[in-house]
UniProtKB/TrEMBL annotation:
Belongs to the P-Pant transferase superfamily. Gsp/Sfp/HetI/AcpT family. This is 4'-phosphopantetheinyl transferase domain-containing protein. Keywords: Transferase. It comes from Algivirga pacifica. Transmembrane segments: none annotated. The keyword Transport does not apply. Pfam families: ACPS. The keyword Acyltransferase does not apply. Residues 109-203 form the 4'-phosphopantetheinyl transferase domain.
Length: 210
């Protein structure tokens, strides 16, 4: 299993996995116990591989890195994933042959990974505000990170109906990258930027008052 990045950012643990296995090899790694209807009903092989790889990476993170029991993954009514019989918080992401998972014992989290391409420029007006582009810049990598950051914040929030260029904001406060997400009452989050080759990675976790 080619885990290509394993990190701890403050109290959030996360891993990135590059999928090189066949579908049959992933089935063997996942085990029949964890094969769900969600996987069986997916018609595209690449999507089945992504779903299985996310679960295998999550089990690796929980059992091998954190040394905690793993009983499986479920999703709430909004599609937000959670660990069975855990009060902790997780998030998952996939982009073609890359998947990522993260875990925080107390704070809600979100993670996203995307490959940077020039196509991001065609839709940047739908998700990024002009004042947000000064945080880093407006090249393909920066724009892709802004998208990843807002996707991570969307996953952290865990509810539908958010407008990316209205209800999800990015800002830099004393060199600390932060996010605001929500409608009537906005959550404040920390944001972390990373990359692997031509992929941008965003990690978000909620700020709790001490």
């Amino acid at each position: 299993m080619p885990i290509i990045k394993e990190e701890k950012t403050q109290d959030t643990y996360w891993v990135i996995w590059h999928i090189t296995e066949t579908e049959e090899a992933l089935v063997d790694l996942l085990g029949e116990f964890h094969l769900s209807k969600e996987y069986i009903n997916v018609k595209t092989a690449s999507h089945r591989k992504q779903k299985m790889a996310c679960r295998i990476a999550l089990r690796y993170l929980i059992e091998e890195v954190l040394m905690l029991p793993y009983e499986g993954l479920e999703k709430d009514t909004y599609g937000k994933p959670y660990l069975i019989n855990h009060t902790s918080h997780i998030s998952i992401t996939h982009s073609k042959d890359m998947v990522g998972v993260c875990y925080n014992p107390k704070q809600t989290v979100g993670i996203d990974i995307e490959r940077a391409t020039p196509r991001i420029r065609k839709v940047q007006h739908k998700f990024v505000l002009p004042e947000e582009t000064v945080i880093y810049g407006e090249n393909d990598e920066d724009l892709t990170f802004y998208w990843c950051a807002k996707e991570a914040l969307y996953k952290l929030y865990g509810k539908e109906g958010l407008i990316f260029n209205k209800d999800i904001r990015l800002l830099k406060d004393e060199q600390q990258l932060k996010g605001l997400v929500g409608k009537e009452e906005m959550l404040t989050t920390h944001l972390h930027r990373d990359r692997i080759d031509d992929h941008q990675i965003a990690l978000a976790w909620e700020v709790h008052d001490v």
